From TrEMBL:
Listed transmembrane segments: 208-231, 243-266, 401-423, 444-469, 481-502, 593-614, 620-638, 650-669, 681-706
Originating organism: Lomentospora prolificans
Record keyword Disulfide bond present: no
Localization per record: Membrane
Protein name stated in the entry: ML-like domain-containing protein
Taxonomic lineage from the root: Eukaryota, Fungi, Dikarya, Ascomycota, Pezizomycotina
GO CC entries: membrane
C-alpha cells in the first residue's frame, strides 16, 4: 500500500490539470484567412498575438486639451493577413449642447481619428479612418451619455508594411509607439491624444525570473562569507579565510553599476531600460501596490490608475480643481463642462471589459493605463524611463528604496538570530559538533551590530544617489525635505564610521612628505601588449633599481606614515581592531587595509555626478567617464584585494565594464543625433558587456561556495580524495598571500628592461682528462710528442685504405699554451684507463708531417657533480684508428 501513496497526491493534480486544459480547449476558436511567408493562403486564430502590438498607454495631450478618458486602448498590426486591430473603451465630457452647437453632433459633425505608429523616431505608418465609415457608432458623434466602445479590424495594403524594417519584428524591446489623435471637423483642432508603447513579444526585461536567480546567487555569496566569519575561535585565522570568500559588496556594486548607469539624462534605446530593470531590486526599488500607493498619496500624486487622461495625473499643490478640469475648450462652454462633471465622474471610473474566454476574438496582450506620475509610455528618457518599466513614479523612488532597505535589514538581523537559535538547539540535542561556532554564539550582539553597519555601507551608494536625484528633480518640497534629511544622515553615519576606523589605526603615528621620483618604464599588459607605466622610485627594491632602465624620470613626492611603535601588530593581526572594523578591512591586503576609505570617496563622487548633475547630460557623461577611468587606473595599480577572485571581479571586470559603459554612453548625447537603429546597436553592445560581467560574477560566486567549503573542512580528514590536492593548494596559497610579502620576480621576465650585461668568463671547476696516447706503448713521433697532440698509426694492420687516409692527426681544441701535461693521477682517472692493451702505435715511415691544426672549441656538458659555470674548457678526445693493411 505504500507504493500507492504517491498516487493519492498525483492523481488529483492530474485530474485538475486535465480539467483546466479541457476548459481552455473548450474555448471556441474562430479562424480568419491569412497568408504565410511563402504567399500561400492559410487560416489563423482570431485571438493570436499580433506581430506588433501596444502595451501600456497614457495621455499625450501635453497642454491639457483633451476631453476624453480612456480605460482601454489596444492596437495590433497583423502581418499575416495585413490587418490592423483597433480597440478602445472610454468616455468623454462632451455633450451635444456642450459644444455650443447642438447640431454639431448631428450629421454635420463628425470626428476623425488619426492613428499613427512611430518607430525609431520616424513616422513609418499612418492611416486615417472615419469612425462613422468603420461602424464605430459610439464615436459618431461622441456624447457624455454614450460610452465609447470602438472596435475595428481594418485591412491595409501590403505595400504599407514595406516601410517597417523587418528587424522590428524580432529585435528585443522594440522601440516604437502607437498614437491616437482625435480632431474635430468643426474647429479643425485636436481634442484628444493617447499614446502607447509598441511591443513585438521579445524583451530583456524579466521582472520575476532574473531577479529570483540573481537573488539566489547573491544569497549564496552572503552565506558563504557569513559562515567563514562565524567559524573558528582564532580571530586572525578567521579573517584570513573570510578574506578569500567572494565579497557581497562586489556583488551589489556590480548590480548597482548596471542599474544606475541609466541615471544619465539621455534618450536611451528601450533595450537598455528593459535590461536594467532586472537589477532594480538590488537598489531597493521593488514594486508593491500598497507601498507605492501610500507614498504617492503622501507625495500628493493623485489620479485614477485605471484610466488615461491628463485629469488627475498631476501633483496637487493648490489650485488642483482648476487644473483638473481646466481644459482648453472654447470659453463659452466652460460652465457647461462643469455642469456635466457629475455624470462624467461615474464614467471616469469605468474599467475596460475583462478578458472573456468565451469570446473567440478576445485577447490577453493588451496594456493598461499608466500610473499617475509616470512618464508617457514609449519615451524611455533618462532615469524615469527605467522607473516607468518598474511602475514606480520618480517622486516615490527614494522613499520606496528606503523602506525596502529597512525591510532587508530586519530580515538579515532576524536570520542571524534564527541561526543562533538553531545552533543552540543542535548543541542541546548533541546533533552537531559546534565547538568552532562557540565564539559566534557568545558574541551575537556584536555580530548583529557589524551586520547592520555592513548593510549601511553597501546601501550607501543607492541611497545617496536616489536622495540626490530627488533633490535635483522638480518634486514636492515635502519629498525633498525627507530626502535631504535621510540622505544627510546616511552620509554622516557611514562617513563617520569610515573616518573613525582610519583614525583608530593611524592616530599613533606621524605623517611626512618625502621627496621621490617618478620613473617612466616599459611594461607589458597581459605579458603581450607593450605599454608604458609610471612607478615611484621608492617602490622599487634597492637591488632591482640598478637593473631597470627608465625612459625618463620626473621629480615627485609621497606621503610617508611612520608608526610610533614599530613593533605594533598589523591591522590583520590586531584582534581588537578586527572585532571592531574587520567588516571594513578584512577583504583587503595587509598593506591596503585602508582602501575602504578610498572606496567611500569614490562612491560619493560617483553619486554626486549621477544625482546632482541630472540637468546636464554632457557633464554627467564626461564626468562619469573621467571618474571611472581614474578609478580604474588607481584600483588596478593598488590591487587592494587579498583574494584573487575579488581582485579579478572588482579591479578588472567591474572596472572595464564601467569605463566601457561610460564611454559608449557618449553616443547617446543629443549633440551627436544618433539614429534609431545605430543607437539600438550601441545599446546591445552595452548589454553584452554587462552580461559578461554578470556571468563572471555568478561563476565567481559558485567558486566561492566551493572554496568556503574547503575552508570549513580545513581541520577534517574526511574529504573527497580527488579534491584533496586542490584544497591543499588553496590553503597553501591562502597562507602565502596573508603576509602580503611582494613576490620575487622571475629571472628573465623583464630581460628587455635590464641593462646589457658586460662580457665575462669564469671557470668554476676543471676535471683533468687523460692525454691522447698517454700510458700507451709505441713509437711516437718526436715532433708530435713535444706538442702532445698527434699520433701516427703503425703500418701494419688490416685493410687496404689509401695511404693518404692513414696520415690523419688527432687534433686538440687547446692552444699550445694550454696543452694538457702529464701530472699526478688520482683514483678517478684509473677508471678511464682501458683494461685491454691497446694496439702498438708506431711511426709510419715516409709519412708526411704537418703541423697540427687548431679546431674551434667544443661545448662540454655540465658537470653534474661540481659547480655549474658559464663556460669550461673541453678537450677533444679522438680514439686512434688502426691502420689497414
Amino acid at each position: 500500500m505504500a507504493y500507492y501513496k504517491p498516487l493519492r497526491v498525483l492523481l488529483p493534480i492530474a485530474f485538475l490539470w486535465f480539467a483546466l486544459h479541457d476548459g481552455v480547449e473548450a474555448r471556441e476558436t474562430r479562424l480568419v484567412p491569412g497568408v504565410d511567408n511563402n504567399g500561400e493562403r492559410i487560416y489563423l486564430e482570431s485571438h493570436r498575438t499580433p506581430a506588433l502590438y501596444t502595451g501600456d498607454f497614457g495621455d499625450c495631450g501635453g497642454g491639457g486639451d483633451d476631453v476624453f478618458s480612456i480605460t482601454k486602448f489596444d492596437a495590433g498590426l497583423y502581418t499575416d493577413n495585413f490587418t490592423v486591430l483597433f480597440n478602445m473603451h472610454g468616455s468623454t465630457t462632451l455633450r451635444k449642447e456642450n459644444v455650443m452647437c447642438t447640431y454639431i453632433y448631428s450629421s454635420h459633425l463628425r470626428k476623425r481619428a488619426n492613428r499613427s505608429q512611430y518607430t525609431y523616431g520616424e513616422q513609418r505608418f499612418e492611416m486615417i479612418f472615419d469612425p462613422c465609415l468603420t461602424q464605430v457608432y459610439s464615436m459618431c458623434p461622441v456624447d457624455v451619455a454614450t460610452p465609447i466602445t470602438a472596435w475595428a479590424q481594418i485591412p491595409i495594403p501590403p505595400i504599407e508594411l514595406d516601410v517597417i524594417p523587418s528587424i522590428a519584428y524580432g529585435i528585443p524591446d522594440f522601440d516604437g509607439i502607437a498614437r491616437l489623435q482625435i480632431f474635430s471637423n468643426t474647429s479643425q483642432t485636436r481634442i484628444g491624444c493617447f499614446q502607447a508603447s509598441l511591443k513585438n513579444g521579445h524583451s530583456l526585461s524579466h521582472p520575476i525570473a532574473i531577479p529570483i536567480v540573481l537573488g539566489f546567487f547573491t544569497t549564496l555569496a552572503i552565506l558563504s562569507s557569513f559562515v567563514l566569519a562565524i567559524y573558528g575561535s582564532n580571530i586572525p585565522q578567521m579573517r584570513t579565510h573570510y578574506a578569500h570568500a567572494f565579497s557581497g559588496l562586489i556583488v551589489f556594486e556590480a548590480f548597482h553599476s548596471i542599474f544606475f548607469s541609466g541615471a544619465v539624462s539621455v534618450r536611451w534605446p528601450s533595450v537598455l531600460p528593459a535590461w536594467r530593470s532586472n537589477f532594480a531590486w538590488s537598489a531597493g526599488l521593488i514594486y508593491a501596490d500598497k507601498i507605492v500607493d501610500g507614498i504617492s498619496s503622501f507625495a500628493g500624486i493623485n489620479g485614477n490608475a485605471s484610466e488615461a487622461n491628463t485629469v488627475g495625473s498631476v501633483v496637487s499643490d493648490g489650485g488642483f480643481s482648476q487644473r483638473l478640469y481646466g481644459r482648453s475648450i472654447a470659453p463659452g462652454v466652460q460652465l457647461t463642462v462643469e455642469k456635466s462633471l457629475a455624470v462624467a465622474r461615474g464614467l471616469f471610473r469605468r474599467q475596460g471589459p475583462p478578458f472573456n474566454s468565451s469570446n473567440p476574438d478576445d485577447y490577453t496582450w493588451g496594456g493598461r493605463p499608466t500610473r499617475p506620475g509616470l512618464p508617457l509610455p514609449g519615451s524611455p528618457s533618462g532615469f524615469t524611463g527605467t522607473l516607468a518599466i518598474l511602475n514606480i513614479p520618480p517622486p516615490d523612488a527614494f522613499l520606496s528604496a528606503l523602506i525596502w532597505f529597512f525591510i532587508f535589514l530586519a530580515l538579515i538581523l532576524a536570520s542571524m538570530a534564527l541561526v543562533r537559535y538553531v545552533l543552540c538547539r543542535q548543541a542541546i540535542q548533541k546533533r552537531l559538533e559546534i565547538e568552532k561556532l562557540g565564539y559566534f554564539r557568545s558574541h551575537l550582539p556584536g555580530y548583529i551590530g557589524v551586520a547592520s553597519l555592513r548593510a549601511f555601507f553597501i546601501g550607501f551608494t543607492p541611497l545617496t544617489t536616489l536622495a540626490l536625484l530627488q533633490l535635483a528633480s522638480p518634486d514636492p518640497p515635502e519629498l525633498k525635505a525627507i530626502a535631504a534629511v535621510m540622505g544627510f544622515l546616511v552620509l554622516l553615519g557611514v562617513g563617520s564610521v569610515v573616518y573613525y576606523a582610519c583614525h583608530t589605526r593611524l592616530r599613533l603615528g606621524r605623517y611626512e612628505i618625502v621627496s621621490d621620483r617618478l620613473r617612466l618604464e616599459r611594461g607589458r599588459v597581459l605579458k603581450v601588449v607593450p605599454t608604458v607605466t609610471l612607478i615611484c622610485a621608492s617602490r622599487i627594491a634597492l637591488g632591482d633599481e640598478t637593473g631597470r632602465r627608465p625612459l625618463a624620470t620626473f621629480p615627485w613626492f609621497h606621503i610617508k606614515y611612520t608608526d610610533v611603535d614599530p613593533d605594533r601588530t598589523t591591522a590583520h593581526e590586531d584582534e581588537a581592531y578586527i572585532k571592531r572594523f574587520g567588516w571594513l578591512t578584512a577583504h583587503y591586503r595587509r598593506t591596503r587595509w585602508w582602501f575602504f576609505s578610498c572606496w567611500f570617496v569614490y562612491q560619493l563622487v560617483r553619486a554626486i555626478i549621477l544625482g546632482a548633475a541630472i540637468s546636464s547630460p554632457m557633464a554627467q557623461v564626461f564626468g562619469l567617464l573621467l571618474v571611472e577611468t581614474i578609478a580604474f587606473i588607481v584600483i588596478a595599480r593598488l590591487k587592494p584585494f587579498e583574494g584573487s577572485r575579488n581582485s579579478a571581479a572588482a579591479v578588472w571586470l567591474l572596472g572595464v565594464s564601467k569605463v566601457a559603459t561610460a564611454g559608449l554612453s557618449i553616443g547617446f548625447l543629443p549633440n551627436f543625433s544618433l539614429g534609431g537603429i545605430p543607437s539600438t546597436a550601441l545599446g546591445i553592445i552595452i548589454v553584452a558587456i554587462q552580461m559578461v560581467l554578470v556571468a563572471a560574477i555568478l561563476i565567481f560566486i559558485g567558486l566561492s561556495v566551493i572554496s568556503s567549503w574547503m575552508s570549513l573542512t580545513r581541520d577534517r580528514d574526511d574529504f573527497p580524495k580527488f579534491l584533496q590536492p586542490h584544497r591543499t593548494k588553496f590553503l597553501a596559497k591562502m597562507d602565502r598571500r596573508a603576509p602580503d610579502i611582494p613576490e620575487v620576480k622571475k629571472i628573465g621576465s623583464d630581460h628587455e628592461d635590464r641593462e646589457p650585461a658586460a662580457p665575462y668568463f669564469s671557470v668554476n671547476s676543471v676535471r683533468r682528462e687523460p692525454k691522447i696516447g698517454e700510458g700507451l706503448s709505441g713509437t711516437i713521433d718526436p715532433y708530435l710528442l713535444s706538442n702532445g697532440s698527434g699520433v701516427f698509426l703503425p703500418p701494419g694492420g688490416v685493410g687496404s685504405r689509401p695511404v693518404s687516409l692513414n696520415s690523419r692527426h688527432s687534433i686538440s681544441s687547446l692552444r699550445r699554451a694550454a696543452l694538457v701535461h702529464p701530472g699526478s693521477r688520482s683514483t678517478a682517472d684509473l677508471t678511464q684507463v682501458p683494461l685491454e692493451t691497446p694496439p702498438r702505435i708506431a711511426e709510419r715511415p715516409n709519412s708526411s708531417r704537418r703541423r697540427p691544426q687548431m679546431s674551434p672549441p667544443l661545448e662540454a656538458p655540465e658537470d653534474q657533480g661540481g659547480l655549474r659555470g658559464t663556460a669550461r674548457p673541453a678537450v677533444e678526445n679522438k680514439e686512434p684508428r688502426r691502420a689497414k693493411r
